[in-house]
């Protein structure tokens, strides 16, 4: 599986995070179905791009310093959201040679041409161009008309290689057969997917905004460069994360970074749960209420784990990427657990809940990590109350289970003569 990763010029926002979480879930599901060893998940890092050059200049730091800093932040933030590391995380700047290899092939096969020190892909040379996004060539005039370069044969032709700008910092300038310069955006994904997955591979993912032009152009480059290549067998595009119905994006300024939420003591797992509440293809409107509801939901789930410290999770089941249905089921299991009196059945529900949450990348903390000390104390009082009720009902099995469960957390209950129960930590 190949997924278009971040352009590392600024902190990732929760729209970017949605994309990462969706493919992390798919990665986990594929690992479950086909075995961990069978899945090769490649997610690139775009570390050469106009936006990076502009941001580095604005901050008066080198491109290397900027990209290094953002890669570190991205890695930490995605870890906080419970995302597994991809199998390979290749950087564009380390694959210039592979890009040049494909560009040369495209020129040799008359799919690309040189004009005014630029190399362009000729969209008219590809009879299948635009199929992915269902567009006709005549509709393919991307971007604002002001920027249409005069050198192009067709306004939809896109750049494979461009010459360096006079002020470019050396780390964004590379040698090529067409002079010093840097690659266009799309070629990096053709090059890195080819290197790590070959000319044909199973799944290609990214946000819905990438279908055109980015994925359309990747496909054109690879299919034209490699004989009989179909590029990806399946395309997956996640829907947008929106704010008041509008796509969250850096350019609109309507974004919240993952870091801002984490710094406000919002748990990464709560953010992850909100991102999974909506089917991955649909738009997801992000708001604070959803976040606080997710925290409460997870509190309930963690309480069940706290009450069942010794459980071994059973294998959960998976149905497509229907996360809203999965989360509804989790609520049902949790309700059934809370209503159940039979200890054996309770343990069974707890095992199911833990396993299913783990498949979604949730409940990866221990309850002690999840609950603050205060929460934990409240929870102990709740359990003592439950135990007293059980004792009053002569339900000794449940009463003993609660005592043992707390013992596992080094918490000892002491029944006083006056009928009250106190607790202390061992
Ligand atoms: P970028 O860093 O802008 O290259 O984007 C990285 C990934 O995040 C791409 O797959 C984008 O399609 C995706 N993305 C950007 N904004 C959003 C959004 N508001 N909702 C969902 N995905 C997004
Ligand atoms: Zn890409």
3D structure, described in words:
This protein is of the alpha/beta class. Helices cover 45% and strands 13% of the residues. Strands 2-1-7-8 form a four-stranded parallel β-sheet. A hairpin with a 5-residue loop joins strand 12 and strand 13. Helix 5 packs across helix 6, helix 9 packs across helix 10 and helix 10 packs antiparallel against helix 11. The model has no long low-confidence stretch (mean pLDDT 92). Bound molecules: adenosine monophosphate and zinc ion (ZN).
Weakly predicted, low-confidence segments: none
Task: State Rg.
Answer: 27 Å
Shape: elongated
Major sheet details:
4 strands, parallel
Bound molecules: adenosine monophosphate, zinc ion
**What's the helical proportion of residues?**
40-55%
What is the N-to-C succession of helices and strands?
EHEHHHEEEEHEHEEEHHEHHHHHHEE
Question: Which structural class do the helices and strands define?
Answer: alpha/beta
How much of the sequence lies in strands comes to 5-15%
Main β-sheet, spatial strand arrangement: 2-1-7-8
Count of individual helical segments: 14
Mean pLDDT: 92
How many individual β-strands?
13
Gap from first CA to last CA = 49 Å
Annotation keywords:
four-stranded antiparallel sheet; alpha/beta; binds adenosine monophosphate; four-stranded parallel sheet; binds zinc ion; 13 strands; 426 residues; single chain
């Amino acid at each position: 599986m190949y997924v278009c990763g971040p352009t590392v010029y600024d902190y990732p926002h929760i729209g970017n995070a949605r994309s990462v979480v969706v493919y992390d879930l798919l990665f986990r599901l594929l690992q479950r179905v086909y075995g961990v060893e069978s899945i090769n998940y490649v997610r690139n890092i775009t570390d050469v791009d106009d936006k990076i050059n502009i941001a580095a200049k604005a901050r008066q730091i080198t491109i290397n310093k900027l990209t290094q800093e953002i890669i570190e932040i991205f890695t930490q933030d995605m870890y906080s959201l419970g995302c597994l590391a991809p199998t390979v995380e290749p950087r564009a700047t380390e694959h210039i040679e592979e890009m040049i290899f494909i560009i040369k092939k495209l020129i040799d096969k008359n799919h690309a041409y040189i004009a005014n020190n630029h190399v362009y892909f000729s969209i008219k040379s590809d009879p299948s161009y635009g199929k992915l996004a269902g567009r006709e060539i005549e509709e393919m005039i991307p971007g604002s008309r002001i920027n249409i370069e005069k050198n192009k044969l067709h306004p939809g032709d896109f750049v494979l290689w461009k010459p360096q700008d006079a002020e470019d910092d050396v780390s964004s300038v590379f040698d090529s057969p067409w002079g010093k310069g840097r690659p266009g955006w799309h070629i990096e994904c053709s090059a890195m997917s080819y290197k790590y997955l070959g000319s044909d591979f199973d799944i290609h993912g990214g946000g819905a905004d990438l279908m055109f032009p980015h994925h359309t152009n990747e496909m054109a480059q690879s299919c034209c460069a490699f004989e009989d290549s179909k590029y990806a067998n399946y395309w997956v595009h996640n829907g947008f994360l929106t704010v008041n119905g509008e796509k969250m994006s850096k350019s609109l300024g309507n974004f919240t970074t993952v870091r801002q939420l984490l710094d406000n003591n919002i748990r990464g797992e709560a953010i992850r749960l909100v991102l999974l509440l909506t089917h991955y293809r649909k738009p997801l409107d992000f708001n604070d209420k959803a976040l606080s509801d997710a925290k409460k939901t997870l509190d309930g789930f963690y309480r069940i784990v706290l009450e069942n410290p010794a459980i071994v999770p059973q294998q959960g089941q998976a149905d497509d990427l229907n996360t809203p249905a999965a989360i509804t089921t989790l609520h049902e299991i949790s309700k059934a657990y809370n209503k159940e009196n039979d200890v054996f059945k309770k343990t069974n529900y707890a095992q199911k809940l833990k396993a299913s949450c783990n498949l979604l990348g949730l409940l990866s903390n221990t309850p002690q990590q999840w609950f603050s000390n205060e929460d934990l104390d409240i929870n102990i009082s709740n359990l003592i109350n439950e135990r007293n009720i059980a004792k009053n009902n002569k339900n000794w099995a449940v009463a003993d289970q609660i005592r043992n469960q707390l013992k596992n957390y080094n918490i000892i209950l002491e029944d006083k003569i006056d009928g009250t129960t106190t607790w202390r930590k061992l």
